[in-house]
Design goal:
Length: about 200
């Protein structure tokens, strides 16, 4: 006789109150007020988006990019990992990496940044975030006027970097390059990243 795992039935009464959106949806400031909200929860179009367990590829790419972008960034800029960005009242995504103005940082106090202080956002695509990272989030970042966007894709466990620049006339991103083994750029600042270094992380 085999024992079967008993999975408790999820009912409306067993869910926390904050799971249910208020009339009109959540607003950006709600993420700072909701108790016991799972880490890295995003707000997209007024709805809460929860993050799935992260794969090794994503974490290795982020470690490499964080190190190299921080090393290359000019003194007046700061690199932030997995912090939220308030775009408007119903949009508060959490880019995997972003570069912000140093003057926008308040040591230990801030929980989010604003588009006006943001130079670059980076998203590392995972299977569950593919549609958001390829379509919705870039559109939101562009509409908010963020000058630079990188999307990192997994190609057989190798990172491929899609680099975009903002067209200020249309508030859309234009692809400026696809980078495989190395990411060498002069904007938004000079940097050269050996993408094959992911194998050493």
């Amino acid at each position: 006789m085999t024992a079967e795992a008993v999975i408790p039935e999820m009912t409306t009464s067993s869910l926390p109150d904050w799971v249910f959106p208020p009339p009109g949806g959540f607003v950006a400031e709600d993420l700072d007020r909701i108790p016991d909200l799972p880490a890295h929860t995003e707000l997209i179009d007024g709805s809460l988006v929860f993050v799935s367990p992260q794969a090794s590829f994503r974490m290795r790419v982020l470690s490499l990019l964080e190190l190299e972008v921080r090393r290359a960034a000019p003194e007046h800029l700061r690199v932030r990992r997995e912090m939220s960005l308030i775009l408007d009242t119903s949009q508060r995504p959490e880019p995997d990496l972003m570069v912000v103005e140093a003057k926008a940082t308040l040591p230990g106090d801030e929980t989010f940044y604003r588009p006006a202080d943001t130079l670059l956002v980076v998203e590392v695509v995972s299977p569950e975030s593919k549609l958001r990272d390829r379509h919705r989030k870039p559109a939101l970042y562009a509409q908010a006027g963020i000058p630079h966007f990188w999307r990192i894709e997994n190609d057989s466990d190798k990172p491929v970097a899609y680099v975009y620049a903002l067209d200020p006339a249309t508030r859309t991103y234009a692809l400026t390059g696809i980078h495989y083994e190395s990411l060498k750029l002069t904007v938004p600042f000079d940097l050269a990243i050996d993408l094959t270094e992911i194998d050493k992380i």
